[in-house]
């Protein structure tokens, strides 16, 4: 069986600079899911034309919009780049420029030109679940996201907070804390 070898990390996008190149439908979709998960993300967009809906979304999340065609100068200071233009040569240039500067790049909807994929994301308070199908089926990622949004209870955050509080009350060294935390949560995984 094939296996997903990607390594998920949870980025602090509020202290990273994300550049989206292009201002059309795909840009809007990527910005929508990015800001749904991370409303405080620092995002800059560069495009000669922004669709109305993209502009509205960008304004709602304080995204900086630069009306211009892509130029390598816009990569300066950016940590992550998402290329969404309808000009394949531009997307390829962005990919090559980013690779040359070791910046993480995603050419949306073009898996071979991605250092990382966007995933399906479920957020419930402090809990976040990210889903990937290894770039094989975005629709499956979407359906799983909808499924988990439904089945993970809203108050899962209360459990996280309670355990966080409880942990503070435990005396002893690290090993004892691990032991106690495992003991009180054992019922969650032990079906007997
Ligand atoms: C590889 C990846 C790269 C990347 O973009 O990061 C990629 C690639 C492609 N997307 C395509 C299309 C669609 N994308 C979606 C939706 C989402 N796509 C997302 C991620 C990813 N999309 C990355 C892999 C993620 C993984 O590993 O599973 C999600 C999860 C997150 C996000 O967008 O932020 C978001 C759902 C969010 C949510 O709902 O929670 C839908 C569904 C819909 O809109 O109903 C369709 C239409 C159905 C279809 O066509 O399959 C195509 C074909 C384009 C063409 O026709 O040529 C390609 C190219 C290809 O597969 O070759
Ligand atoms: N919309 C969709 O659901 C899908 C789109 N695609 C592909 O994704 C690409 C983008 O699609 P859409 O977002 O729908 O197109 P779009 O036409 O809505 O948006 C393209 C954007 O790229 C910008 N752009 C063009 N040249 C640029 C440059 N030199 N620098 C910066 N920005 C530039 C345009 O101004 C525009 O804002 C296309 O190649 C399309 O074939 C693929 C699958 C699905």
UniProtKB/TrEMBL annotation:
GO molecular function terms attached to this record: ferrochelatase activity; precorrin-2 dehydrogenase activity
Signal peptide: none
Annotated ranges, domain Siroheme synthase central: 125-149
Pathway linked to the protein: Porphyrin-containing compound metabolism; siroheme biosynthesis; sirohydrochlorin from precorrin-2: step 1/1
Keywords, alphabetical: NAD, Oxidoreductase, Porphyrin biosynthesis
First-level EC class: oxidoreductase
Source organism superkingdom: Bacteria
BP GO terms, sorted: siroheme biosynthetic process
SUPFAM superfamilies, sorted: NAD(P)-binding Rossmann-fold domains (SSF51735), Siroheme synthase middle domains-like (SSF75615)
Name this polypeptide is given: precorrin-2 dehydrogenase
Organism ancestry: Bacteria, Pseudomonadati, Bacteroidota, Flavobacteriia, Flavobacteriales
């Amino acid at each position: 069986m094939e296996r997903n070898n990607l390594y998920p990390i949870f980025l602090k996008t509020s202290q990273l600079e994300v550049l989206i190149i292009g201002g059309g439908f795909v840009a809007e979709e990527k910005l929508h899911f990015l800001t749904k998960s991370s409303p405080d993300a620092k995002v800059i967009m560069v495009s000669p034309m922004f669709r109305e809906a993209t502009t509205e979304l960008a304004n709602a999340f304080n995204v900086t919009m630069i009306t211009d065609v892509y130029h390598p100068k816009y990569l300066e200071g950016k940590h992550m780049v998402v290329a969404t233009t309808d000009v394949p040569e531009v997307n390829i240039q962005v990919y090559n420029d980013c690779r040359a500067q070791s910046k993480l790049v995603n050419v949306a909807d073009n898996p071979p030109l991605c250092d990382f994929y966007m995933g399906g994301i479920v957020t419930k308070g402090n809990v976040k679940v990210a889903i990937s199908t290894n770039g094989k089926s975005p629709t499956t990622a979407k359906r799983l996201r909808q499924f988990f949004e439904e089945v993970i209870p809203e108050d899962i955050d209360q459990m996280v907070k309670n355990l966080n509080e409880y942990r503070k009350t435990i005396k002893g060294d690290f090993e004892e804390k691990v032991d106690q935390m495992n003991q009180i949560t054992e019922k969650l995984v032990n079906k007997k």
